[in-house]
Amino acid sequence: MITRTTNPDIPHLRRTGDTTQLIVDGQPFLILGGELQNSSFSSSHFMEDVYPKLAAANLNTVLGSVSWEQTEPEEGRFDFAELDRNILAARNNGLKLVLLWFGSFKNGKSTYVPSWVKINPRRFPRVQTHRKDGTLETIEVLSIFDTAAQKADAKAFATLMKHLREVDEAHSTVIMVQVENEIGILGDSRDRSHAAEVRYKSPIPEELLRILLSDKSNFTGPFRRNFGQLDADAVPADASWYDLPADRQRIDELFMAYHYSLYVEQVASAGKRAYPLPLYTNVWQNYGGEDNDPSVPTVVGGGGTPGDYPSGGGVEEVLDIWQLFTPSLDFIAPDIYLNDYSKTCAKYTHRGQPLFIPEQRRDEYGARRIWHAFGSHNCIGTAPFGIDSLDLDENPFKAHYGLLADAAPHILHAQATPSSSAGFFFDDLPPTGPATSPPFTLTFGPWSLKIERSFVFGHPSPGSGMIIQQTQNTFLLLGWGFQVTFTSTNPAAYFTGILRFEEKQVVDRATGAMRTVRLLNGDETQSGRFAIMPSAKPDYGGFPICVTVPARTGMAVCEPYALVRK
Ligand code: DGJ
Fold first, then answer.
1. Where is the DUF5597 domain positioned along the sequence (predicted)?
2. Which of 219, 370, 502, 543 is most buried, with most CB under 10 Å away?
């Protein structure tokens, strides 16, 4: 019997205090990723031109989908030829991979299951949902209230993971795997098939009922809002789902979330046993009230009620259930398109889980926001969706990822050093109305830092960046279009100024070693008032004297000083 010990060098998550970091090739790793369009990774020929373009855009990781239909075209016959060519090509381009297992569920549907599953609804029953007239409609979604699909998916996924171990354990090209994609029921709040109905009428499983009736103070706000009132007096021990005294749609969502969690746990645990890479699943974000934008059609994102968005997916309303019932998943990851980015980052560090953003906007609006994820939420990685259909010169992530790659050793060190960094962004100023992303103030030890858009005489530019306190009096400033005003928090201080402000350039990406390229002073600090990290094209506003220089490296070290009354 060959007893396999887990290779300590395979990609894994390491907890350091309150921070979890992804370890790849033995070192902390920041995923500067991009997710491919859905069908791109199905062809190694198609990927031949894509990999070099993404490497040139400073990505270090590509997220590509591996489908059940392509993996197991006939039951029991597995085909990894395209996948192997893609893994080798990624490796040869110096890129890592996160694979997305499109198995039973993808955007709430089952379109990626193999044909031998699709055409056999008796063996693989489907979900039925209510039409508006109350009649039942059979839809293209596998029901989770039967075990055949779950077992077949788990077998296929375990076979994939076993294969990855065989072909890639020595290389760690594949660093994580996403299990399924944006799970949930669309068009209704739950499955209404006969098998689902039988389950719904049955007593709620004791393990779940105990949770529902226990102290929920560490559950998310929406969960407590929906189920916080439940207690043993109101809920008999043999209560069915019909008996729960709560909002019916929310009970349906809980019903689906609990059973989807059990289904995915079976698939994920089978894969984890074969090759224990970090595993996660991703979530189509709903509009939880504060984000609701009725002007945005609910097509591939958004939705305010279960069924408008995939009911049962790991949205904040049921995130605790997903975290408690999928121990083989290392975290639950948000796809952030339409929602408030900062609020969603905070939501998905719930229970101390690491934040990974497998999908987000790929425009400058989205690119600015990753600094907040990395600098203020210890994000282990980001991946704009549809990255391969962007031309290199129109890809805003090239600049952002280039600077993040240079500064990665400093950022990773800061992430493992609590309260030593902050990330932020300033959007374009609206033509009318209040400024979005206003100035804000942070305190780092004996210094208060006011962070705002960088000074110009003309129209202020958008900006984004990060501040890292490297020593008590030394700050690494990263990014563009912002400035920092330092003030001593010492009550005896009567003056604060800038002792030194040096533009830096990384000379070794592996260590983050930097050299000084300019000594910044004078106009670059408005004569000592604040440290300016200018945008690439500061608007002079027609002012006759060009005092605002453009950005160069986007990296600088600043040391404030204070004069204190004795
Ligand atoms: C979210 C899904 O997870 C992606 O696979 C893709 O379908 C995008 N939506 C864009 O529609």
1. 397-531
2. 370
